[in-house]
Amino acid sequence: MSGQRVETAEDRDRSAELRDRGAEDRDRLSRRHDEQSEEEGSREDILLLAERDRARAAADRVKAAEDRARAATDRRAATDQRAEAQRAAAEAKHTLELAATDELTGARARKIGLDEVAREIERARRTGSKLTLAFLDVDRLKEVNDTEGHPAGDALLHLVVETVKTHIRPYDIIVRYGGDEFLCAMPNLSKVGAKRRLNKITALLAAANDGHSISFGLAECEPDDGIQEVISRADGDLLQTRRAREES
Fold first, then answer.
1. Fewer CB atoms < 10 Å away: N or C end of the chain?
2. Residue 13 appears among annotated catalytic residues
3. Ramachandran area for residue 209 (φ above 0: left; ψ -120 to 50: alpha; else beta)
């Protein structure tokens, strides 16, 4: 609407300029008649036409100014509407992000996180790229809760997730799967590369506190895998790791 009003204002300005020129032409014609003729009626008619053109030109300019004022109002309204739409979009995005995040740990909430992992598995299958899924378990959480209290246990969970998030890539996905269980999907990374990364995270947690540790199992996505197949293999690898640790 504002663009149309600006165009209308410009048209009226051009019309006003044409009428002014017509009035000036009639003034010149009137002066010639004044010099060459004694016919006063003809000269007065020309002057009246010139004044009429000037009046119309002035009216066109007034209308053009009104159109510009309306256009400016339209622009302000459009700017306000865009700003309000951006605010609403930002609030909706923030609300969605809160719903997608586990409040205690900062990992992805289970339902939304599993959907995201499933999409990554589908992408890996479609593109033929690698994807490794880690099944993580926080060691000694029940013992920490029983001896130091649940706030200490909550702090341990938060520390584990923050440490993992700091040392994985921005597009890797960590999901709170259960109370002390987490999934971490790592696209474009082999099982060997994922193990190296998680061993480093385990060492960092142990260095922060002798009592802090995680156990993990890994599964590399295969062409026909769905999310449950990959999770089951990673969970099975975790159980094998624990059995081997207990037997050693």
1. C
2. no
3. beta
